[in-house]
Amino acid sequence: MSIKIQIKHKKSGIVKYGKYGFSWTYLFFGFFIPIYRGELGIAILHVVFSIFTLGLSNLIFAFIYNKQFMLRMLTSGWELNGSEEENSDARQALGFLIDI
After folding, report:
1. Taking Cα atoms as reference points, which of 77, 75, 100 lies closest to residue 87?
2. 31 within some domain
3. Could you list the residue range(s) of the whole structural domain that residue 88 is in?
């Protein structure tokens, strides 16, 4: 099950939510999730994987997509904006030991 965490863009101050953990939406809707989140290149890559694996890649990506998405966000100017406890849990789940 995915866990929601608030993220904030450092320069613009835009606030939105990201998730980490298992993605039920990706399991059921596959490459449409990256399209919905504005990641067209990632969606095309996932379509290719889905074709070559006859859809089995959706099961694998359901476990890793949210983490990959959050890592891309955090390395492109976004930062965790939840409580200290939420941020600490998210850092640990995403594999960061220091503040981002």
Report:
1. 100
2. yes
3. 3-94
Query: Do 33 and 25 form a contact (C-beta atoms < 8 A)?
Result: yes
pTM over 0.90: no
| CA-CA-CA-CA torsion sign (41, 37, 13, 22) | negative
* 100 domain residue, yes or no: no
What tens digit of pLDDT does each residue of 41-94 get? 999 999 999 999 999 999 999 999 999 999 999 999 999 999 999 999 999 999
Which residues are bridge partners to 79 per DSSP?
Answer: 8
Q: Distance between CA atoms of 96 and 81, rounded to whole angstroms? A: 15
* Domain annotation covers residue 51: yes
Tell me 21's DSSP state: S
